[in-house]
Write the structure tokens for this entry.
Amino acid sequence: MIKENQKILNGLFAVWDACVCMISIVLAFYLHFYGYRGSDYIGLGYYLNLMLYVVPAYFLIYHYFGLHDSFRYRSLLSEVGKVCQSNVIGVVFVFVLVFFLKEVHISRIVIFLFGLLNSVFSALSRAAARRLLRGMRAAGYNIKHLLLVGWNDVSAEFFDRVTSNRALGCEFAGYLSHSKVSTGGRKIAYAGGFGTLPYLLERGGIDEVVISLDYAEFSELSGIIDICEKAGVKSNLLPFYTKYLPTRPYIDEVEGMPLINIRRIPLDNMLNSFSKRLLDLAVSILMLAVFSPLMLAAAIGVKLSSPGPVFYSQERMGRNKRIFRMVKFRSMRVQSGDATTWGTRDDGRRTKFGAFLRKYSIDELPQLFNVLKGDMSLVGPRPERPYFVDRFRGEIPLYMLKHLVRPGITGWAQVNGWRGDTSIEERIKCDIYYIENWTFLLDIKILLLTLLKRNTPSAFVEPNLQRVIICSCG
């Protein structure tokens, strides 16, 4: 029943997304041309005919990003991020399509409004669907019944996290083990030994089996999976080595054999990388245009406040450990040999005007040129000097993983308060979280938080719930 309901829901969402596309283009047209008296524009009929190409393309894009799949175990923030990312790619597709159709009079504003409205309506409809399903699950409908095969620390943690989130709509039919063990006061019934699994599945009432075996029990894994498949019940593996897996495990296929990536990088995906680069270019060009008067004033201030050049460039290590020169407004007195000197909050080398630039991060604005060049991104781990990279790589676990993506002007560590002369360990935890959990919407969130100047250090806790659920339930 759960599977049939999910198929119906997925189909309804696909139809609704097509309707949203049509509604969005109509609203975008009237919002732009409302009250316009001229006749030198293409009518609504052309845009509606254009949707005959756009709607199937959007279906494929949404399907690629999993927006027509079950969202029971996926956060709303993640889904909204995928909606925004899909619409960025969708708008680019529309412009490319119009180019090949050789229609030069189509309104760019209408297309941009279409992308914005489609993003908003799609996100709101998914939020509403979640709220509706959450209410149904609270009333006892659309509940998924799970059976745990094996009881250990990992399965106990899984039980705690799933039962603490009622929105998942999961209940446990019990656990199987060679003998009844202490569950630490948890309200889950002992359903018998592993030999009772065929009887329980044939009896019905179990939607999925979560297999959580210790190392000593792994020899029984193939038999348990065979029993589940013969009964037609989905089985999921919750391995004892879960703590070594990334937040979002990704499995490659090598000559027909599965290969688990210990570090999955969402930005290795070409579409993800393209949408992020598109955001970098659009925002950096806009910011350079908006802040050009401020940058001119800062340049004059640097020149008048102390002798020396306006800009200061320094070697930093970027993506794939490539060295580049990062540009900033000079905030210190001219000196040499600072490649091995660590800056502090009360650094005496700063000029008074330089301290002002640092306080409001104005000295970072020239890095927008690094973004345009492709050495940096708007959002990412902050780049470090090669000297300190060599030092930290032996002292800080996982430090070198930050070089898997482009460095950024701002990042998840910075908006959580870990900037400047603060804990390198906490900064790296934030950087790795960002690298493994990147979404288009997360970049937007970080940019907005950067503008709000959230500089107070906060404890960073990695959300293990998503790791456990995705590893186990699929």
